Amino acid sequence: MWKFRRLTVKHFTRWALLAVALLVVGVYPAPALRAQDAYAAALRVQYRGVEVRRAQTDTWLPLPQNAQTTFGAGDQVRTNATGRAWITFEDSVVALVLPHTVYELTAFAVSGQQIERLHARLAGRLIQRTAGTIADYRLETARAIVERPAALFIVQTQGDDILYLISARGESRVETQGQVITIAARQGLRAVGTLDERRSMTEPLRLSDLSVPANACQGLVRASPEPSVEVRTGPAEDYRSVGSFPNGTTIPLLGISEGGSRYLTPFRSGFGWVLITGIQRDCETLPTVPLDAVFPLGGVVNMQADEQPLLTPFFGLPAEDKWFYTHD
Predict the structure, then answer these.
(1) pLDDT over 70 (residue 29)
(2) Which of 128, 184, 258, 316 is most buried (most C-beta within 10 Å)?
(3) Are the beta carbons of 211 and 196 closer than 8 angstroms?
(4) Checking DSSP bridges between strand 288-289 and strand 255-257, what pairing results, if any?
(5) Are strands 217-221 and 250-253 parallel, antiparallel or unpaired?
């Protein structure tokens, strides 16, 4: 026997969102943009560079900035170097999908106002804010599975064997290599290869700091007679300067340039290069970093006010990080 569910104002709101999205992106056929699940999340494009692929389809469809649509089980969203998108689940879970990311919703169920199940897959970087509890939560990555979300956390993957997760508020629980690790507030998990390392952190809770190995070579800034050493986006003078380290600062050294003139080090929410003549190091050898090496910078272009509460715990204020926060 068929069972019919009484429609509520919230259900009509979801379909209204879908209708608006179809008008916004009306150049695409309606079936391609139709949500696969009436009990879907709401997807909103925060900044251009976002595509959606509906369940059981093969085509990625670009969405314009500020477009809104529903997002159901089997749907995927992906972002390019600038794209950002909001996904809102029942007003209790909000996810900000950052650049260079693919996010797939694999299962979603609600009972009344409560989310019962939220399963997803992630490759890239995402910030999530959660109110209340979810009985069945699962965020899969190639390296590990988040089994319990913190009230506010960020997760980033790189390839199949690297995962970084930081809990800003509340506890996250992660299953990795057959064990379950709890990540408390202001702690991070660095899962690289076969190593799982949990660390305490201070705000801003930067992914770039978490990515540094515990045994990294350390350098002491001694740029005298200059008061500081400049940090550049590449290993030469013609690259943009993004800040400096004052004399007396201890910094981790991750590698040396091919020409042997600069060290690679974390800086703010990314990585930069400093002259070796301004650094005294405590190790004998460092790996050579090729000029075309790719680093997971993925900054934010034209940050909006509604993003700031999620971004600043992990990336600091815009005035403090001109590398991560940019304007077009």
Answers:
(1) no
(2) 128
(3) no
(4) parallel
(5) antiparallel
